[in-house]
Design goal:
Blueprint lengths: L12 H11 L6 E5 H7 L2 H7 L5 E6 L4 H10 L2 H5 L14 H6 L4 E5 L5 H13 L4 E6 L17 H4 L5
Parallel strand pairs: 1-2, 2-4, 3-4
Length: 165
Amino acid sequence: MWVSNSGAGLGWGIGAAVGAKLANPNRQVVCNIGDGSVMYSAAGFWTQARYEVPVLTVVFNNRNYQTVRHSYTRYNGKMNRANRYLGIYLGDPDIDFVKLAQSQGVEGIKVNSAPELPNAIKRGIAATREGRPFLIDVLVRRIGTGADSTWYQAHSVADVRTRKV
């Protein structure tokens, strides 16, 4: 069974996966989710750990709010012409989703290349069979217009202070 939304809503996937597992605890639940979407709902890992909800979460990590960037490109405005997409790039610093999940009690593994994926999936399935949630952080490439943009608006609050407090 495939559960999806039709509105390209960010952030609902982790909660939906928990709900799917609660509704049918005897089925394997895999949450396929983008890195940007996780940033809206990462507290769901804590819920999975606290209530022993064995969901396998696969994060497609391209360090980018790709769905939002694709929406911006449809307008073909200033962001497209400058190849600068405000608030879209999720690198510098990179988000370590394995550590984020681990900080809330969910074990995980990072996958940097395709050959690593089968073993990671096996580990994740083994964990969920044992009753534990598991996260796989899969590094993927960005695609589409603006995919090469890693621009973000630099600002340092530390540098603009008049007092070092």
